[in-house]
Write a structure and sequence with these properties.
mainly beta
């Protein structure tokens, strides 16, 4: 079954904005995006995927990882592409799991350090922080329209994503 829309639950945030970053893996020609630290509370549980995009979630429906399997040389570019200016913090939970979606449209800036993955059109989006460098756009019914990934870095042999994960693990928990 293919989802036409991806439904989200958006509530008042219960923790600070999570660390997050996009790492373009040169050897794999894929973008890997870490959303928050991996921990015993934030482990893989389910997914939503298309042929080239996979979203991974924990048991509570929180996004923990994104993989964009399209090589960046194939990303459409738009010199006018800019991320949303105003973003609100939120507790975002995905309500759909283990489903396929139609292939989203991927557009990047010419430097390819900013990418927008669009799942559906939205003339008046609401913008919420998924993590430090990630923004989720939704329509007025809290259906996902796009995900913005900013500050993408080039990574070879997974060194930069490994350092990011190590640093995230060593930071004190908000709840500790």
């Amino acid at each position: 079954m293919t989802l036409d829309i991806i439904k989200l639950s958006i509530a008042t945030p219960s923790e600070p904005i999570l660390p997050g970053r996009g790492f373009y893996q040169v050897e794999e020609d894929a973008l890997h995006v870490q959303v928050g630290p991996f921990s015993h509370n934030r482990r893989f549980f389910s997914w939503i995927e298309s042929p080239n995009v996979r979203l991974d979630f924990d048991r509570q429906g929180r996004l923990i990882f994104i993989e964009l399997a399209t090589a960046r040389r194939h990303w459409q570019t738009d010199p006018a592409l800019t991320p949303p200016d105003i973003c609100e913090p939120a507790d975002i939970r995905w309500l759909d799991f283990r489903e396929s979606v139609t292939e989203p449209v991927t557009v990047a800036n010419p430097e390819r350090n900013l990418v927008c993955i669009s799942f559906k059109e939205n003339g008046t989006p609401l913008n919420y922080h998924l993590a430090d460098s990630l923004v989720c756009q939704v329509d007025r019914n809290y259906n996902l329209t796009s995900i913005w990934i900013n500050d993408i870095v080039t990574d070879r042999a997974g060194k930069r994503i490994r350092a990011f994960r190590k640093k995230s693990r060593h930071n004190k928990s908000y709840y500790a």
